[in-house]
Amino acid sequence: MEPPEPELIRQSWQAVSRSPLEHGAVLFTRLFDLEPDLLPLFQYNCRQFSSPEDCLSSPEFLDHIRKVMLVIDAAVTNVEDLSVLGEYLAGLGRKHRAVGVKLSSFSTVGESLLYMLEKCLGPAFTPATRAAWSQLYGAVVQAMSRGWDGE
Fold first, then answer.
1. Please, which residues bridge with residue 62 across strands?
2. Domains, the chain, ordered by start
3. Sign, Cα dihedral of 24, 28, 29, 31
4. How crowded is residue 50: how many other Cβ atoms within 10 Å of its Cβ?
5. Mean pLDDT in the chain?
6. Which tens digit of pLDDT belongs to each residue from 20-40?
7. How many Å apart are CA 36 and CA 120, to the nearest integer?
8. What's the predicted TM-score (pTM) here?
9. Kind plus residue range of the DSSP H or E element containing 90
10. HEC string for 21-84
11. Most buried one in 41, 48, 81, 144, CB count within 10 A?
12. How many CB atoms lie within 10 A of CB 83?
């Protein structure tokens, strides 16, 4: 498989990476809109969040957003050779499986990522940029899905 267009990925990520928390919050707000059943999976100190807003304002969840944005940043950095992140991403897959995330939920995360990029980039989010990000995200999920296969 050809790697996604590295320049399109890097240029578009530059704008997003200036405000990772802000853009990450857009991603997760969209995710909870599309798949509200994911909200109960986020618990810190046995505390259930009563609403997505409650969750998105929690310091622990903001830390989760930071981590997610760092993973995307690592994928952007290694866009030409994601295999260097293979073990790390499989481990992330195992962690997500352990807390009850279904592999199918990652397609909703992908939709939310594209939504966030579109909101951030506006007209600069061209069909070619969308295709490059879809390809990159697909490769990341494929690597993470090894964590579900029990490897």
1. none
2. 5-146 (1.10.490.10)
3. positive
4. 9
5. 92
6. 999 999 999 999 999 999 999
7. 23
8. 0.91
9. helix 86-98
10. HHHHHHHHHHHHHHCHHHHHHCCECCECCCCHHHHHCCHHHHHHHHHHHHHHHHHHHCCCCHHH
11. 144
12. 10
